[in-house]
Amino acid sequence: MMSDSPSNPAPKVPRGLLIVMTGASGVGKGTLREQWLKDQDVFYSTSWTTREPREGEVNGREYVFVTPEEFLTKASQNGFLEHAQFVGNHYGTPIEPIEAALERGQDVVLEIEVEGAMQVKERMGEEAVLVFIMPPSLTELRRRLTGRATETPDRIEKRLTRATDEIREAHRFRYVVVNDDLDRAVREMRAVQQAERAAQKRREDWTPEDYAATEAVQRVHSRNLSAAELEKVVSS
Ligand SMILES: Nc1nc2c(ncn2[C@@H]2O[C@H](COP(=O)(O)OP(=O)(O)O)[C@@H](O)[C@H]2O)c(=O)[nH]1
Ligand SMILES: Nc1ncnc2c1ncn2[C@@H]1O[C@H](COP(=O)(O)OP(=O)(O)O)[C@@H](O)[C@H]1O
Fold first, then answer.
1. Which residues of 29-56 are buried (b: 16+ CB within 10 A; e: fewer)?
2. What is the residue extent of each domain of the chain?
3. Is 1.10.1740.10 the CATH classification of the domain at 18-45+107-235?
4. Going by CA atoms, what residue is nearest to atom 27 of ligand 1?
5. Residue 13 CA, ligand 1 centroid: distance in Å
6. In angstroms, how far is the first alpha carbon of the chain from the final one?
7. C-alpha 132 – ligand 1 centre gap (Å)
8. What does pTM read for this prediction?
9. Which residue in 34, 52, 53, 132 is deepest, having the highest Cβ count within 10 Å?
């Protein structure tokens, strides 16, 4: 009979995946994440921010809303995995819950802007699965930001200016998923997750779904992306 003695410890659970969704404000990261994760038990990291809550946002749900002083104190105590400024406010990912979730084998999802995503890449290396969410065009991004009606015209312009720089960085991330057709983009996020899990397993343990996902993600690998294609998005 199996025992729990130290000479025969319980098998270690594989670490969860750390999946980072990044991309311009208004591209649809939140919408895509909700669809993708709706029937999964992943750990979604709630960020800290110094921006004002929007109507309907709840402290501790969309964000932990804090003062600049509170934010900077936590930053000085190395309490963030990454943090960045975005259009005049601070945003950061609290570090502790993430390591705990990964350790217990739970996948972790971050939804953050590009500078923070680069910091995660530096700090976590290959372990971080970075996915850039691309708009079909800048015109469509403007339409989405305007349609969401959460920002003043001035703040929309600032986000679009930042978006141009962010889109030009897309090739630095492992995958690029274009959010034109939402259902297809959701399928691609599922394939990324499945393929990355498969990559942690031995080949002889792969299921047909692991093979299919690994093939599907070749199409969303950032190495397929040329600089000319990125320029086309920002100028259209
Ligand atoms: N670096 C970093 N960016 C974050 C974090 N949380 C949210 N963001 C990003 O900050 C940007 C602005 O967020 P927000 O003001 O909520 O606007 P929205 O994403 O357009 O709804 C978005 O690109 C978010 O993805 C975080 O913890 N760290
Ligand atoms: N594939 C899509 N096609 C059309 N509209 C979309 C799509 N994805 C998201 N949207 C819309 O775009 C707006 C911005 O989406 P949101 O998820 O808030 O973006 P983000 O979290 O990246 O700031 C929302 O009004 C959302 O309904």
1. bebbbebbbeeeebbebebbbbeeeeee
2. 18-45+107-235
3. no
4. 92
5. 31
6. 66
7. 14
8. 0.92
9. 132
